[in-house]
Amino acid sequence: MTFSLCARCPESGMLGMAVSSSSPAVAARCAYARAGVGAVASQNITDPKLGPLTLDMMITGADARKALGAVVAATPNSEYRQLIAIDAQGVTAGFSGKHTLGVNAMAEGRDVVAAGNLLANDGVPAAMVAAFEGAEGHFGDRLIAAMKGGLAAGGEAGPVHSAGLLIVREVEWPVADLRVDWQESDPIGALADLWDLYKPQLEDYVTRALDPTKAPSYGVAGDE
C-alpha cells in the first residue's frame, strides 16, 4: 500500500525522500531525514519509530547498511516491516520482511533506493530509480520525477490517495516538508503542483530563518 524512494544529491548535499500510498497522511508515518546524516522510509505495516532509530545509528558512525541491519535485528516483528535508507555518503540499504504485503520489490541505484508493497507489479521500484537517475534539475524535481515514474509503471495495485516530499540539507530543519494527506484522484500530481509552488520560495524561507534582516518581502497585504 506504499511506494517510496530515498535519495541524495552529492552536489548540493541534499538528502530526502518521497512517498505515496492508498492510506491517508502517509508521510506523517513513513518519512524521515536528517541533514548530513541520511533519509529513511519506514513502511508496510508501519512502525514509525524505526526511521528515527535508523538515523540515530547513522549518527554513531554506521553506514546505511549497518544501521538498517542493526535496527532490523533488534526490532520485534521486523518480518512485518519494509525499510529503505540512504546515508550522507550515498550508501543505500533496504529490507523487506517475509510478511511484507502483496507484490513487493526493491531497487537500488546511484544515490537512490526505492521500494514498495501491494504493488501493481514488481518493476515499480526499478522504474522509480530509472526516473530519478534520468531526471535533471533541482533535487526535488528528481524526487517528483521518480514518483511519477513509479506511478506510470503501475504504482500500487489500487489507487493512491496521499503523498509526501521531505528534503533536508545543512540547516537543522527540513527545507521542504510537503504533504498531500488525502486526494481522491491524483495525490502525486497534487504534490508536484505543490512543489512547483514551493520551490521558488525555498531559499527565501531559509534566509528568513538564518538572517531576517536579509529576508525578502513576504509579498502579502500589509508587508512593507
How far the N terminus sits from the C terminus, by CA atoms, comes to 47 Å
Describe the main β-sheet briefly: 6 strands, antiparallel
The count of helical stretches stands at 7
Overall radius of gyration: 17 Å
Structural class call reads alpha+beta
What is the N-to-C order of secondary-structure elements (H for helix, E for strand)?
EEHEEHHEEEEHHEEHH
What is the beta-strand fraction?
A: 25-35%
Label the overall shape: globular
Fourth-tier CATH superfamily name: Aminohydrolase, N-terminal nucleophile (Ntn) domain
CATH architecture: 4-Layer Sandwich
Describe the structure.
This protein is an alpha+beta fold and 224 residues long. The protein has one domain: Glutamine Phosphoribosylpyrophosphate, subunit 1, domain 1 (4-Layer Sandwich). 32% of the residues lie in helices and 27% in strands. The protein contains seven helices and ten strands. A six-stranded antiparallel beta sheet has the order 7-8-1-2-9-10. It has a four-stranded antiparallel beta sheet with strand order 3-4-5-6. A hairpin with a 2-residue loop joins strand 7 and strand 8. Helix 5 packs antiparallel against helix 6. The radius of gyration is 17 Å and the shape is globular. The mean pLDDT is 96.
